[in-house]
Structures are given as structure tokens and as C-alpha cells.
Amino acid sequence: MSTAVRYRVVHVTEYQYSEAIASARHLAHLSPRTTPWQRVAHHRLAIDPNPVEYAEDFDYFGNPIVRFAMGAAHQRLVVVAESELSVQPRAAEWSSRLDWSQARPASANASLEVQQFTLASPCVPLLPEATAFARESLRPGRPVIEGLLHLSRRIQQSFIYDPQATSVSASVDDLLRSGRGVCQDFTHFMLSGLRGLGLAACYMSGYVAPLGEAGANQGAGASHAWVAVCVPGCGWVGCDPTNGKLADDEFITLAWGRDFGDVTPLRGVILARGPQQLRVSVQVERLLPGREA
Prior knowledge:
Blueprint: E1 5-21, E2 23-28, E3 38-48, E4 53-58, E5 64-70, E6 74-87, H1 112-115, H2 128-137, H3 144-158, E7 160-161, H4 172-178, E8 180-181, H5 183-196, E9 201-208, E10 211-212, E11 215-216, E12 224-231, E13 235-240, E14 245-246, E15 251-257, E16 266-271, E17 276-286
Parallel strand pairs: 7-8
Antiparallel strand pairs: 1-6, 1-17, 2-5, 2-16, 3-6, 4-5, 9-12, 9-15, 10-11, 12-13, 13-14
Helix pairs in contact: 2-3, 2-5
């Protein structure tokens, strides 16, 4: 078995409000998910100021979540998620000669848990343009893994990664019009194309290491998003359209769902007036051999 890669992640979210907030309630997807390929050794969520309510739970998709409420007036909120974990390489298991059409749940008697990821969702409409784009890579006779990698690379090459050209409210149509976006936009576009072809594909939320085998990764230093596709005999195969590669041990999983709306890292409702400023920073450190995660 290949050696797991160990990481330390520090994710800092800071809100600065123009006026004092009387009260607020928040929901966080900031706790790494334990999976067959990912082991969480340590996780801590620090909130300043201290919340008056705090509860850990799981959402519909089985992702760990934290709900917390602020009861005292405050003009600044800082949430620091610190984790140490290990990720097992899986790419060697992602070998299949199946034609992509044989991977569709309808032909594999898939469960409803899988079937739900073939449908449109609030952030992922099934656009004909996205389906046509995906079909160019997933051609008859091409093995599904090869097709998914080809599609990931084409999306990377066809759109410009530009953090200044988009926002969390950007749509797949916005990406098609501007040709620019970030990992969230590329992922929603890929999901639209794959689901339009009848494949089961989910939105993966987490982080990507700054450096991979091919050099620097786009999207490091912030939350990252990629796609996982259900392939019979392989399980869920990770694909990163932002970096044009399969998503293996360079990727750290926080949560998964239908789209960004299901797994937003931090969201909430506040009672206040005036604008707010948001600052987010993410540091992913690969731990040296011998240093336990």
C-alpha cells in the first residue's frame, strides 16, 4: 500500500462589520471528513468572540458541521479551523476499461444515494452547452477514466482562472459568457456537463496542496472545489478541472454535496446594518516524514 501524505491545515475566516452586530447564527463546514482514504488525527475550531451556543452535528450528506450563535454585540468575527490529517493515494485504483456510458447509474442499478447526484441542483442547471462540451471528451469507446481526465484538462485550458472575475454567486452561465472564473465555477460547469450525460457526480469541498507532482496548483491558499464521479469498480473518482488532473492525495476533503450551496465553508444570518468585509486565508503544510499527523 502506498504511503499516506500528512498535512497540517490552518483556515482563517475573518468578518469585519461596519457597525456592531447585535446577534448572529452561523453554520460551518470546516471540519475535515473522515473517509476510507482520509484519516483526521486532530481538529480544532476556535471562534472569537466566544459563541453563546455551540453544537456539533452532521448534515444530510454525512458531513460534519458546527452550528454556533453569537449573543453579544461584536464588530469582528474570527473563525480558525486547524487540522492535522493524512490522505492515502488512490489513483492506482482508478483503472477501468468501461465505456463512460456503462458508468451511468441507470445501467448499474445504483442506489438513490448515487442517483441524486445525476440531477440538476440550485447551482448546477443541466445546460446543453455544458453537456455538449463534456460529450467531446466522453466519446463512445473511450474508457471513462481517460475521458474524465481529458475533460478536466479541456476545462482548464478553455477557461481562465481569475479570482477577481467572479463571486460566490456566479452562475455557470456567467462562466460561459466571460470565460473566466475560479475552482467553484469550473466545478459547477463540469458537474453540469457530466450530469447532463447521466453520470453521477458530486461537488467536493476542501483544499489543494500548494505544490503537486506537476508543480504549483491553482486554488491553493483558499478553499478549493473539485468533482467526484461514481465509476463502477473504482468508487468515486476525483477530477480537478481547475488544475486539469485527477484529484488524488494532493486534495484534502472537507465535505461533499450537490453543489457549493450544500457545503459552504461558513454562512449565517446576522442582525445588523451596513456593509461587511470578509478575509479568508488557508495554509496547507505537508508534514515531513516522521512528524505524526
